[in-house]
Amino acid sequence: MSKTVISTDKAPAAIGTYSQAIKAGNTVYLSGQIPLDPASMQLVEGFEAQAVRVFENLKAVAEAAGGSLNDIVKLNIYLTDLGNFATVNEVMSRYFQQPYPARAAIGINSLPRGSLVEMDGVMVIG
């Protein structure tokens, strides 16, 4: 099976040795997104703004792959403070409708560039 690199300038450029997403068949593997503004490559401030920025970044990559956030079947959310769990749920409700994707919310020590949240996912299109 061939792999296709998905890339868009509407999401932050990769800051390491990875692609924004890889499409294999009708499955798209979305790399982790942190709340970098794609134009400035700077972190946005505040947890809610960071969560919104991450969803906007994921949305841009999903659309570049020919799909949408509603095509995500599995979403992983990494939080440096699980106290932000309710806020991430509220922000997520702005972007997704039922049926919601399968999901994990994982508390971790730290994220790249001091981010408070990172998300990755798997999407099936077509």
Describe the structure.
The chain is α+β, with helices and mostly antiparallel strands and 126 residues long. It has a single domain, classed as RutC-like (60s Ribosomal Protein L30, Chain: A, 2-Layer Sandwich), CATH 3.30.1330.40. It is 23% helix and 29% strand. Strands 1-2-3-6-4-5 form a six-stranded mixed beta sheet, with helices on one face. A hairpin with a 2-residue loop joins strand 2 and strand 3. The longest helix is centred in the middle third of the chain and has 18 residues. It is globular, with a radius of gyration of 14 Å.
Question: How would you concisely characterize the structure shown here?
Answer:
This protein has 126 residues and is an alpha+beta fold. It contains 2 helices and 6 strands, in the order βββαβαββ.
Task: Jot down its keywords.
126 residues, alpha+beta, 60s Ribosomal Protein L30, Chain: A, 6-stranded mixed β-sheet, 2 helices, 23% helix, globular
Give the H and E element order. EEEHEHEE
CATH architecture: 2-Layer Sandwich
CATH homologous superfamily heading: RutC-like
Strand content: 25-35%
Mean pLDDT: 97
Outline: globular
Strand line-up in the sheet with most strands: 1-2-3-6-4-5
User: What is the count of β-strands?
Assistant: 6
Helix proportion: 10-25%
Please give the radius of gyration in angstroms.
14 Å
For the largest beta-sheet, the strand count, sense and barrel status come to: 6 strands, mixed
Output the number of helix runs. 2
Q: What CATH first level would be assigned?
A: Alpha Beta
The end-to-end span amounts to 17 Å
Number of domains: 1
Secondary-structure content class: alpha+beta
User: Remind me, CATH topology?
Assistant: 60s Ribosomal Protein L30, Chain: A
Spans where pLDDT lies below 50 across 5 or more residues: none
